[in-house]
């Protein structure tokens, strides 16, 4: 018979040293964006079911946009919101049961998205086109009838992590944040090992906390296969016994800590590769690092906010304060 068991989540705030960045704040335009979004949902209410509306509102996509882009202006925030709405649509439509039921036509959807994305990337006159284009590319990878990429079942942590980096939807957000802030770093610099390490560790610091935070939701829905916590319990190379959820949660915390240490080392390596006296490049590197950290922090803020019922991690303020999670097993 199912029972509720309380587990100790690793304290992600401590693992990511968030106390060293006390000035992070959600974008002040969030209330205005939320009002616009609810007005939009009211206008399309006749075209969606009550369940779909509840799911869309519960995801708190305006908060997601405002958290990931704390320095964006209102038009830029609207771009983010467009992108996240598309991603939520992709996730819902790529559900295996929906795919098997034939409840969508992938080619029609992709063709529609592609008709809106003929401009060069980040054309400031039509800012949403590049994100629509990227969402279309992401959708092509996700839909089960065309590819097994998203529904990849891993039994080894290393292969799972490599795969997770490919499908996490944060790549366009990082690129857009870099463009929005007009960071002046050449493609050659961004392709050096230090910067590639910065990007990869940033992706890990978004994907792996998401695995921890979403494990409760996925476990309750029987969809916890594609999650580091679950993979740790089946990988024979990992010292975690099958079914030992607490040990698997602890292991995920270790991987997050390792990723953050790598991020810090890559930052030092990136700074060290600048020429002596090149203060301009050094300043741009620090701005880029700051953008990455705000993206990492925004991800946590959005996912654990009590308004984000998409994850509904903590049942009480006491659970949130102690990073405790109650899971039905």
From TrEMBL:
Its EC number is 4.2.3.-. GO terms for biological process: isoprenoid biosynthetic process. Keywords: Lyase, Magnesium, Metal-binding. It holds the Pfam family Terpene_syn_C_2. The keyword Magnesium applies. The lineage of its organism: Eukaryota, Fungi, Dikarya, Basidiomycota, Agaricomycotina. It comes from the Eukaryota. SUPFAM superfamilies: Terpenoid synthases (SSF48576). One of its GO terms (molecular function) is terpene synthase activity. The keyword Metal-binding applies. Belongs to the terpene synthase family. This is Terpene synthase. Its cofactor is Mg(2+).
């Amino acid at each position: 018979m199912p029972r509720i068991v309380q587990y100790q989540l690793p304290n992600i705030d401590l693992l990511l040293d968030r106390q060293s960045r006390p000035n992070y704040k959600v974008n002040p335009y969030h209330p205005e964006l939320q009002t616009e979004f609810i007005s939009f949902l009211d206008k399309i209410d006749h075209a969606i079911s009550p369940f779909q509306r509840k799911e869309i509102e519960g995801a708190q996509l305006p908060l997601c946009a405002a958290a990931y882009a704390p320095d964006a202006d209102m038009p830029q925030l609207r771009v983010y919101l467009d992108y996240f709405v598309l991603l939520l649509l992709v996730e819902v439509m790529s559900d295996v049961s929906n795919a098997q039921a034939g409840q969508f036509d992938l080619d029609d959807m992709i063709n529609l998205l592609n008709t809106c994305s003929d401009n060069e990337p980040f054309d400031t006159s039509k800012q949403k086109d590049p994100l629509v284009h990227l969402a279309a590319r992401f959708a092509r990878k996700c839909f089960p009838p065309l590819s097994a990429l998203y529904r990849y079942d891993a039994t080894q942590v290393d292969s799972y992590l490599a795969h997770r980096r490919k499908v996490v939807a944060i790549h366009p957000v990082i690129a857009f944040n870099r463009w929005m802030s007009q960071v002046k770093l050449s493609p050659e610099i961004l392709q050096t090992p230090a910067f590639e390490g910065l990007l990869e560790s940033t992706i890990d610091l978004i994907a792996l906390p998401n695995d921890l935070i979403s494990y409760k939701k996925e476990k309750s829905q029987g969809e916890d296969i594609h999650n580091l916590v679950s993979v740790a319990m089946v990988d024979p190379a990992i010292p975690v016994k099958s079914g030992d959820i607490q040990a698997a949660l602890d292991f995920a915390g270790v991987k997050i800590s390792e990723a953050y240490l790598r991020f810090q080392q890559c930052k030092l390596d990136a700074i060290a590769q600048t020429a002596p006296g090149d203060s301009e490049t050094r300043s741009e590197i620090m701005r880029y690092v700051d953008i990455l950290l705000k993206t990492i922090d925004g991800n946590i803020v959005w996912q654990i906010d009590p308004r984000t019922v998409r994850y509904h991690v903590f049942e009480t303020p006491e659970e949130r304060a102690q990073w405790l999670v109650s899971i039905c097993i």
